[in-house]
Design brief:
The complex is a heterodimer of chains A (about 70) and B (about 200).
Chain A (H helix, E strand, L loop, with lengths): L2 E4 L2 E4 L6 H7 L7 E5 L2 E2 L15 E6 L5
Parallel strand pairs in A: 1-5
Antiparallel strand pairs in A: 1-2, 3-4, 3-5
Chain B lengths: L11 H6 L2 E5 L3 H13 L3 E5 L23 H12 L4 E5 L8 H5 L4 E4 L4 H14 L5 E4 L12 E5 L2 E5 L11 H21 L1
Parallel strand pairs in B: 1-2, 1-4, 2-3, 4-5, 5-7
Antiparallel strand pairs in B: 6-7
Helix pairs in contact in B: 2-3, 2-6
Classes of the chains: A mainly beta (about 70), B alpha/beta (about 200).
Chain lengths: ~70, ~200
């Protein structure tokens, strides 16, 4: 089975899988996130279109208000 | 003037005097980070904010009663020059947008993300990490409430660094001590990264 790793969790990779699909799969409903795929930043405006390659290492960081 | 930095660690004064750091936002994080960096001997700071000082800022931000109603960047610059008149301070009294980041902060070696709203943190980090992947951005992320010191940590992914607990948001309230701790984690990390480079 092809997989991707999201914050250390291994999930199944599917053909055409986008960053948005990964967030849905992980049930991440929070929208203020920093997302990196294989070390490169994926801007929020590209989450719906950016295709995640198989074996990708994905980092998702929640951003909290306050300062 | 060199006496100001007589107690600095070995090698620190020379390296930091050549450093340029950008600070986006001059509220709870930005005002505290700026003061610490100038006390450490940073050569140049670029600071930006569009806000004026309000009474509700005084519980955590580095401003005084007499400054209420005045531009934050203007009074902060005066404060910083009272600490080290040789520090070069460039101020931008404006609400930052994505397109401002390159023209305003491009020469900075390190970006300090010091916004309060998570939406703003998001676009700033995205913009910086996309345009300057080789230069660190240090974000304050999760500094609300009080106590719970053990949860405050430095986390990184590549050149994006996060200081804070990563969990609390401003709905929990903002307290002077915890905001200052996280601000100084950011300042301390910036100094550490400069000294390694």
């Amino acid at each position: 089975m092809d997989t991707v790793t999201v914050n250390g969790n291994v999930i199944a990779w599917k053909e055409g899988m986008t960053v948005r699909n990964v967030l849905d799969e992980m049930k991440y409903s929070f929208r203020l996130l920093i997302i990196k795929v294989n070390g490169g930043i994926v801007k929020r405006e590209n989450w719906d279109d950016f295709s995640v390659p198989k074996n990708a290492d994905i980092k998702v960081i929640h951003l909290m208000s306050g300062g | 003037m060199s006496d100001i930095f007589a107690k600095n660690a070995d090698g620190m004064t020379g390296r930091l005097s050549r450093a340029v750091i950008g600070i986006a936002g001059c509220g709870g994080i930005g005002s505290n980070v700026a003061v610490s960096l100038v006390r450490a001997g940073i050569g140049k700071l670029i600071i930006a904010d569009f806000d004026i000082v309000e009474a509700s800022n005084l519980n955590r931000q580095y401003y005084f009663i007499s400054e209420i109603g005045k531009s934050k960047v203007t009074v902060l610059k005066d404060r910083l020059l009272q600490i080290n008149p040789d520090c070069e301070i460039t101020v931008h009294d404006k609400e930052l947008r994505r397109n401002d980041i390159g023209p305003i902060f491009g020469e900075a070696e390190i970006m300090i993300e010091a916004f309060d709203r998570a939406e703003s943190k998001q676009w700033l980090i995205e913009e910086w990490a996309t345009n300057y992947p080789e230069k660190p951005v240090i974000s304050g992320n999760g500094l609300s409430g009080f106590g719970n010191f053990e949860s405050l940590k430095v986390r990184r992914t590549g050149n994006i660094w996060f200081c804070g607990d990563g969990v609390t948001s401003s709905e929990s309230g903002l307290c002077s001590a915890r905001v200052a701790i996280v601000s100084n984690m950011q300042a301390n990390l910036a100094i550490e990264l400069l000294m390694k480079n």
